[in-house]
């Protein structure tokens, strides 16, 4: 069964667009997964590139399906968006992340933030601030510890709606971060007027560092832009010490990637400062 599970999984990930029938089946399985508790959160450390300290974590959802194995979020999040399950998943993720952060605080582990991804579909629907408000009340987490990651494209697809939603979220006291930055053609004027705290340089650019001239130029430009707007920059997808060195040298404050630590279940996280290259 394990073997066929792997094959199915490989098949799903190879296909860029799933067949309609497969999407329906996966959607039904996902609905069950929520009820059966098959979703899990993993957490990836985010490191201060100057000190090596773990400043925060990003929560990343995992679906452990008994037959299919580990279904990656790139596969099931789009299915969830189509089948209308995304709101339930995102609110489960939000609540779980906030509960975990509270548990760490109570255990004496003090992080600056826990980051949670928000799907573009939920973001474009606009009731996100209500979800967030409810979850903060339920879990008792202080808003300043929660950071929401919204992709640049979700923001720029409908900038007027995004702007008012981001302002409502900001007035709840949570922090906002623009994910996959550099892939979505932001206008500078827009960016200046958004109440965001962080930009996350897309890992596609980090992958080419330090050799690729275009990736290096774009990375430096994003860092400079962030600084001129008073924002913190995070680079994701750091896999080599050379990438970390390049980023630190060009003023990138925070870093995340396999080189510092893979996403892992809460109990397996390593909180020790990372040796810096
Ligand atoms: P993302 O938000 O850009 O997350 C970063 C992805 O890069 C994660 O993949 C992470 O495991 C992976 N990653 C981290 N470090 C490295 C590295 O050094 N090298 C490489 N090659 N990859 C690295 P993951 O967990 O498979 O998630 C993929 C995407 O699925 C996320 O991209 C995000 O868009 C979405 N996603 C994940 N969790 C959630 C969630 O809870 N809610 C929503 N709405 N979307 C989620
Ligand atoms: Ca993210
Ligand atoms: Ca990202
Ligand atoms: Ca990305």
Overview of this protein structure:
By secondary structure, the chain is an alpha/beta fold. The protein has 12 helices and 9 strands. The radius of gyration is 19 Å and the shape is globular. Helix content is 49%, strand content 19%. Residues 1-8 have low confidence and may be disordered. It has an 8-stranded mixed barrel, surrounded by 5 helices. It has helices at residues 2-14, 20-36, 73-83, 86-106, 120-125, 128-139, 152-157, 159-172, 188-193, 203-206, 213-228, 241-249; strands at residues 39-48, 54-65, 69-71, 113-117, 146-151, 175-181, 198-201, 232-235, 254-255. Helix 4 packs parallel to helix 6 and helix 6 packs parallel to helix 8 (159-172). The protein starts with a helix and ends in a 22-residue tail after the last strand. The structure holds ligand C2E and calcium ion (CA) (3 copies). One calcium ion (CA) is lined by residues 179-180, 200, 236.
Stretches with pLDDT under 50, minimum 5 residues: 1-8
How far apart are the first and last residues' alpha carbons, in Å? 44 Å
In N-to-C order, the SSE pattern is: HHEEEHHEHHEHHEHEHHEHE
The major beta sheet can be summarized as: 8 strands, mixed, barrel
Strand content: 15-25%
The protein's oligomeric status is single chain
List cofactors, ions and other ligands: ligand C2E, calcium ion
Figure out the total of helices.
Answer: 12
Q: Could you tell me the mean pLDDT?
A: 90
The total beta strand count reads: 9
Neighbour order of strands in the largest sheet: 1-2-4-5-6-7-8-9
Assign an overall shape: globular
| Helix amount | 40-55%
Structure class: alpha/beta
Rg computed from alpha carbons, rounded to a whole number of angstroms: 19 Å
